[in-house]
Design brief:
The complex is a heterodimer of chains A (425) and B (462). Chain A is an all-alpha fold. Chain A has helices spanning 2-16, 20-46, 61-74, 77-85, 89-92, 95-116, 139-167, 173-199, 212-238, 245-274, 282-289, 298-316, 318-322, 324-342, 344-347, 366-394. Chain A starts with a helix and ends in a 31-residue tail after the last helix. Chain B is built from 14 helices and 13 strands. Classes of the chains: A mainly alpha (425), B alpha+beta (462). The interface between A and B is large, with 50 and 57 residues.
């Protein structure tokens, strides 16, 4: 028990101490969160009428970010799977960070769903027992279960491992490995379920395609590892935490292959919609070419496509991918492209035109932008804290003061004095 | 998009049977429930003669009858007791239900013979379906999968205890919170304002309407009526009239007659207390170009003299589908289909996720993006819990075929207001109803039949 108390005190100390840049970073995130909270306060008071949504386009920026971030959460699997299941040592040092990304992404997902609710105070209606969860009929009920379950898995597994390091106890593989297997399958499920949430609606032919689930996976394994590469590269350059070049390269390979598959699927969808356009292709027509003078998303989607194709091409060429100066911008480009395409580019056209053929366009209001920025800041805040807490423990710099004798030789980072990392609590 | 198909008698029966209120089986309790339409009515009872019940007739057109040329002709096939057709339709339906898996989700076991006592005891009591539905949903809420081995046998006594326990729990919570709120007056508050806060506080903790006991329903209605008075000084009368046995509502719309006057839209707004600030409307009248039935090219916002040359008019609203996609997707079961086919929303249970809006292929649902407002002098005080009572911001609402009127044998406001006689409303189970006459004698079609939603709203022409 004393270990636990010490652990959280250490965690608090790690998270709150750092250099000037660190405080500046966390301060800016807090400021953005506060602005978001202010905007959300307005939305709570006035209702969702302060957003750009309406009866025609009834989901907007919030749900767009939600669908994208589910992918980011699921992408942790691409590190967890090789690290634990295939026992690839190159990934072992990235795995806790990947799980941190998953937690942060899930926190954002849940936040985006909550801010999208018309009656967030009635969320307890979803809790079986005191409320009523329409499971298994509603795909949204499935989503509630899988997202919260995945969050729980990604909190408890890293905590178990990290806490083991902290207290200097050996963790038995047999105890946590089964959960890792479950979490890998679970990662696929969160993304498939979210895709099914949209694909389940025959009223919206744009989403009602069996390719949606696989495409969600492909884009998730494109955007997620791309983000991981950026993050790992940043950690490597800013701290003493050692991440091998091989780790980045393997992740880059995963990103590249997923991006290629994603483009193949995108091409297949475009072919189906436009070879012989039917009534069901009107949403795609609106998205790519505009409909009766309404072309709000045309520039958006072509930008996304352009960025996507360029980044994928660059990554496909080996020498370019192996050059960090190219890899990082390419990953950033890809990440943004996927966010554009799988967020607004997927959700909004589903509502345009309406099922009865009426065209109402959507553009987010400042409230939506502020709330969205606030939630992203929240996610980055959570991620920073998690990484900040995990790294010193992983490097062996921080150990429970109640360990009888010093644990030695467990980690290699002991003798180094990392810059910018917190001292012992 | 739409197919021109004749409505056959079997089809009518299918829809009738889908709701579980079939006259031949009135000795077995019909089911209510979350989209699981058919229950006992689908049980195979081959060769049962089509015994006719004294069904309440809802098709008496008060105003538009004279305008309508359609006469109340008794249908040739409808009056016959063709049990064979019925049995065949029911067998087909049973297969369909079994295939869809809904059979497992039924309130009681598929074999009614196993529970003859239950059927006999509850068959003729109107609340029976609700008991069944409550039992089932409660079973699910308490973690028992519907259709689990004990779902059939113990459904009679167990859930009642659970329900009572839930009621007591919620009551205790509400009482406790009320006391807490009363003991901690932060600011000087008028008695009325405090009463309002307490009522709203108690309202917050109430359960899903279908899980409430009769006393709980009465209590919440009292609270809501009082709240309406405190808010606007209007004495409203909120009813919770249940579906009448032997009634399934259907609607037919004559596209030859409609001239686009939109009296129906206006009547609907008034009758259903629709938000005046944002101009919510349940009904849309599309001005269609002659020569095609393509809503993409139609205009629902026309502002000119009607009827316009070279155009015809087609009205849409909620079609009360027999297989409603909106009901299935709701994560908290805040929307469901009643035994008379009306798809309703529990405004106080809806969390406002708007998944149902995305799921509706007919764009029939509306969301309260801000606090709805109806001036006190325009408020319709004759309300129904599942119909036109006050909504709050952040919840979904929809057309209920004017549940507050039609369950008392009146026409929906839109049908009553129509000056052209384009709107035909009635009981699909009544062979003598005008709607049945239309379905049997006119060429009818429905929108997007390919989606398998089975709307109970047909279009026809003279």
């Amino acid at each position: 028990m004393q270990h636990l108390k010490a652990f959280f005190l250490t965690a608090l100390a790690s998270a709150t101490s750092g250099g000037r840049r660190y405080h500046l970073w966390m301060g800016s995130l807090t400021l953005i969160m506060l602005i978001g909270a202010f905007a959300y306060g307005i939305q709570l008071r006035e209702g969702l009428s302060v957003t750009g949504m309406n009866d025609h386009v009834s989901w907007g920026l919030y749900i767009s970010n939600f669908t994208f971030l589910v992918g980011l959460a699921a992408a942790a699997m691409m590190v967890v799977l090789p690290a634990y299941v295939l026992a690839d040592v190159d990934f072992s040092r990235a795995v806790l960070i990947a799980e941190g990304v998953a937690v942060a992404a899930l926190v954002m997902c849940l936040a985006f769903v909550v801010v999208d609710l018309g009656n967030p105070l009635r969320s307890w209606h979803l809790i079986p027992g005191i409320g009523f969860l329409n499971w298994p009929r509603s795909m949204l009920a499935w989503d509630v279960i899988v997202l919260n379950g995945y969050l729980l898995l990604n909190l408890s597994i890293p905590f178990y491992i990290l806490y083991g390091h902290y207290t200097g106890r050996q963790r038995e593989k047999s105890k946590y490995l089964p959960w890792i297997y479950i979490s890998v399958l679970w990662a696929v499920s969160i993304h498939m379920v979210t895709a099914f949430l949209l694909a389940a609606l025959p009223s919206r032919p744009f989403w009602n395609t069996s390719l949606l689930g696989p495409r969600f996976l492909a884009s998730a394994f494109t955007g997620g590892p791309a983000f991981m590469i950026l993050l790992l590269w940043f950690i490597r350059s800013e701290t003493e935490y050692e991440i091998k070049e091989a780790t980045l390269q393997k992740l880059a390979m995963i990103t590249t292959v997923a991006a290629q598959i994603n483009l193949v699927m995108l091409g297949s969808e475009i072919f189906k919609e436009f070879y012989f356009p039917t009534h069901h292709s009107t949403s795609a027509r609106y998205l790519f070419f505009g409909l009766d003078g309404h072309n709000g998303l045309v520039g958006w989607i072509w930008t996304a496509l352009f960025l996507n194709v360029v980044a994928t091409t660059v990554l496909t060429i080996h020498p370019l991918r192996r050059n960090p100066r190219v890899l990082m911008p390419a990953c950033l480009t890809l990440f943004v492209a996927i966010w554009m395409e799988k967020g607004m580019g997927l959700v909004i056209p589903g509502f345009v035109p309406s099922p009865l053929g009426e065209i109402v366009e959507y553009s987010p209001t400042w409230v939506e932008f502020a709330v969205t920025a606030g939630i992203w800041a929240l996610g980055l805040f959570v991620l920073t804290v998690l990484v900040r807490v995990a790294l010193p423990i992983e490097m062996g710099q921080v150990r429970s003061p109640y360990i009888a004798k010093t644990v030695t030789g467990s980690e290699e980072g002991l003798e180094k004095v990392p810059a910018g990392t917190p001292a012992k609590a | 998009m739409s197919t021109d198909r004749e409505m056959t008698f079997e089809d009518v029966l299918r829809f009738a049977a889908k709701t579980g209120v079939e006259s031949s089986f009135d000795d077995v309790a019909p089911s209510a429930g979350a989209g699981m339409a058919p229950a006992a009515g689908a049980a195979p009872a081959h060769g049962t003669p089509g015994r006719r019940l004294p069904l309440p007739v809802v098709d008496a057109r008060a105003a538009g009858a004279a305008a309508s040329p359609t006469t109340h002709t008794s249908c040739a096939t409808g009056t016959c007791g063709c049990g064979g057709v019925r049995a065949a339709a029911e067998r087909a339906l049973e297969r369909e239900i079994r295939a869809s898996g809904e059979w497992e989700a039924m309130p009681f076991d598929a074999d009614p013979a196993r529970f003859p006592d239950f059927a006999a005891a509850h068959g003729r009591t109107p609340p029976a379906p609700t008991v069944g539905a409550q039992a089932d949903t409660l079973g699910a809420a308490a973690g028992t999968r519907p259709g689990s081995p004990d779902a059939g046998g113990t459904v009679l006594d167990k859930p009642v205890d659970r329900r009572r326990a839930l009621g007591m729990f919620l009551g205790a919570v509400a009482a406790g919170t009320q006391a807490a709120a009363a003991c901690a007056p932060f600011s000087p508050m008028s008695d009325e304002a405090r009463e309002r806060k307490l009522l709203e506080w108690a309202e917050y903790f109430k359960g899903n309407f279908r899980l409430m006991t009769d006393e709980e329903k009465a209590e919440t209605i009292r609270r809501l009526e009082r709240l309406a008075y405190l808010k606007q000084g209007v004495e409203v009368n909120i009813k919770a009239t249940e579906a009448q046995p032997g009634v399934v509502f259907g609607y037919a719309f004559n596209i030859s007659k409609c001239k686009g006057f939109r009296n129906c839209v206006e009547a609907c707004i008034k009758e259903n207390n629709l938000d005046r600030r944002t101009g919510t409307q349940y009904i849309r009248i599309f001005e269609m170009e002659a020569g095609e039935i393509n809503l993409d090219h139609a205009d629902s916002t026309f502002q000119h003299e009607v009827p316009a040359e070279g155009h015809f008019y087609l009205g849409t609203q909620c079609f009360q589908c027999a297989n409603p996609p909106c009901v299935q997707v709701c994560p908290v079961s805040a929307t469901w289909q009643e035994p008379d086919g009306i798809v309703v929303v529990d405004y106080d249970w809806c969390i406002g996720c708007r998944y149902c809006i995305a799921a509706c292929p007919y764009w029939a649902r509306r969301f309260n993006w801000s606090e709805p407002h109806v001036p006190a002098e325009e408020l319709n005080p004759n309300q129904h819990y599942l119909g036109n009572r006050a909504r709050k911001k952040g919840v979904v609402e929809k057309c209920t075929f004017c549940i507050q009127r039609t369950r008392e044998g009146r026409l929906p406001a839109c049908a009553e207001a129509c000056p052209t006689g384009a709107r035909v409303f009635g009981n699909l189970l009544d062979p003598n109803s005008e709607i049945r006459w239309v379905l049997e004698n006119k060429r009818v079609f429905r929108l997007k039949e390919d989606l398998n939603t089975e709307p109970r709203f047909w279009y026809f022409m003279d």
